[in-house]
Each structure stands twice: as structure tokens, then as C-alpha cells.
Amino acid sequence: MRAALLREIGKPLVIEEVPDPKPGVGEVVVRVKAVGICHSDLEIIEGKIPLPKPLPHILGHEVAGVVEVVGEGVTHLKPGDRVALSWLWWTCGRCRYCLVGRENICENQVNTGYSVDGGYAEFVRAPASHVLKIPDNVPFPEATSATDAVATPYRALTFASRVYPGDIVAVFGIGGLGHNAVQIAKVLGAKVVAVDILENKLEFAKELGADYVVNASKEDPVKYIKDLGGADVALPTVESLKAMRQAYESLRPGGTLVLIGLPVGELSLPVIDWILKDIKVVGNIGFTRHDILQSLKLVSEGRVKPRVELFKFEEVNEAIEKLKRGEVRGRAVLTF
Questions:
Q1: Do 126 and 104 fall into the same domain?
Q2: How far apart are CA 109 and CA 274, in angstroms?
Q3: CA 93 – CA 107 distance, rounded (Å)
Q4: Which one of 101, 136, 169, 170 is CB 3.0 to 4.6 Å from 185, fit for a cystine?
């Protein structure tokens, strides 16, 4: 099969022929139809997130395709089934976190495109237990977004925080995750403030239903949001400590800051202010399979419409460079 290999940190990926994967007991091989490019992939390429395995490596954890081969013992999937595979390649189901429904922080998890080879390839192998069926009316590119770019803000706004009708939700960064966060917050009945530094992203947010937009390069988003009464929930989706600090400062008393971006460095917050205003600061990593299924349902029902920009598999490096420049509208997706 063809695969886009990371052979050297900081260098472009190289498309090469590699052996086709074979399914083990309880596993399937999926023929990849589409795979999303996540910002965490860029951080792995740049060496900001070290890999737990030696190079060469196949990235890609937002995968949609069809079952090609089923291994021994697989009964609920068959060749031709439309399926998705996420960051959660495998979770144990036995640790203290899995037992309370928090498999996103499973102590023994194995991660697609990180611990094992991922979906920047024509085929990918995975445990059948963690391959999820896609509704028939959801196209493969949009299904890739449901596995992460929808599921992550979905969990952030329904588990890490609670959004009630009439709440103000401030979304910082209207990119791959942020544009879906705007839509999810609207589904939950919130008034949404979209914050970005690019006018085209703010126009995009308006199209998606944002009630207010703020260009943080031209005006103070904290003052703007405070003038509205302050945010009940602030969700910085960008890898920026400055945006995280602004998101915190935009909260009203009793508000919640949910951190889902992965910037390098430390975030300094005023502890006394934090306590006196009864503010919650919550980290949220990823999602569970339940969150993905709920995200696929929202997409299937048309309540959330993830925007994707399509690139041919052979254009993987062009897509990565365009994403680095902040020029992708929605999520960059490779197609086969």
C-alpha cells in the first residue's frame, strides 16, 4: 500500500510503498477513504510532541473508510461496512477511568497515528471494538471530523462544562475545532461569541450562527465579552497561552474555562481572583467512543455541519503547509 511516512522530524512526509497490514484476532483492516489532518499531527512532525515509537511513522487519527478484511472472532463488522476510527485505537475497559466512562484518559490506551501507525495510508489496522459504524448519509470526509474535530468540542461543552440555554459561550479560534464548537454551542441553546484574528474566520463564524464576532487583532476581546456580561463558558481551541489567558479573563463569576488546545509552556492565572469569582478551570483531552457516536448523530441529523477542505492524498505536504499558514477553512482532509 501507499503511505505518507514521517521519516525525519521537521521534514516533509514521504509517500512510499509499504506492506499491507494484516488483521489479528478481533481486528479489522480498513480501506481509508478520507483522513483528517489534526494540529497535533503538525506538532508531531515538528517534534513538539515526541513519538513513543521509532521512525518511520504513519500519522493520522481521524479516519473514515470501509472494512476491507475482518480478523478471526469479529462478528459485528463485515467487509464493505462504512466505519470510522479515532485517536482511541484501543482502551482497556478495566482501569479505574474506563470503568467510570472516561476512556479518554484510559491508563493503558493505545493511540492511532501515535502509538501505532495511523491513517495517512491506503489501509489501517485496528481492533474491531474501536471501529465505529458511520450513518449512511454522512460522507467520509465529514465523518473524519466527527471522530475528533466535532467530538472534542462536544465533550468540552457537555462533559467538561455544562452549557444551558441562554448562556454565553466564547469560542477562541474558529479553525478545525472552533467552527464546530460554535455550532455545538448553538445546538445547546447558547449565545456564541466567536474570537479570531482573521476576518475571513469571523465571517465564517457568522455563517455558522455566531451571535457576536470579535477580531482580537483590532479590539480587546475581554472587554467586548465583559460588556456583554461575561462568558459562562470560554473555550480556547487554539494553541495559544495568550488566548487561554484572555478566555479566562472574559469569564463572569461562576464561569468555566475549558482548555483543549496544546500550547507549549505554562499558563499563569490570578489565584485570588480565580477563587473569589468561583471560576472553574478544566482540562479536557479528547473524547470517548460515546462522544464520537453522539457527534456522528449530530452530523447525520444536520444539526452540526463540519466544514472540510479536501486534498488528494498526494497533496499531503501542501495541505500541511496550508494548515500551518492558517489558510484552511474548517478541517483539512486527505481523500483517496
A1: yes
A2: 33
A3: 10
A4: 169
Find, among 116, 120, 115, 179, the residue nearest to 150 by Cα: 179
One domain for residues 29 and 124: yes
Give which of 121, 103, 15, 110 is closest to 53, Cα–Cα: 110
Same domain, yes or no, for 187 and 247?
yes
Q: Which domain does 22 fall in, by range? A: 2-148+287-335
pLDDT tens, N- to C-terminus, the chain (336 residues): 999 999 999 999 999 999 999 999 999 999 999 999 999 999 999 999 999 999 999 999 999 999 999 999 999 999 999 999 999 999 999 999 999 999 999 999 999 999 999 999 999 999 999 999 999 999 999 999 999 999 999 999 999 999 999 999 999 999 999 999 999 999 999 999 999 999 999 999 999 999 999 999 999 999 999 999 999 999 999 989 999 999 999 999 999 999 998 888 899 999 999 999 999 999 999 999 999 999 999 999 999 999 999 999 999 999 999 999 989 989 999 999
Same domain flag for 10 and 135: yes
Count of structural domains within the chain:
2
In this structure, which amino acid lies at residue 271? V
76 and 168 in a single domain? The answer is: no
Nearest in space to 39 (alpha carbons), one of 237, 214, 231: 237
Residues 83 and 162 reside in one and the same domain: no
Query: pTM for the full model?
Result: 0.95
C-alpha grid cell, residue 62: 481521524
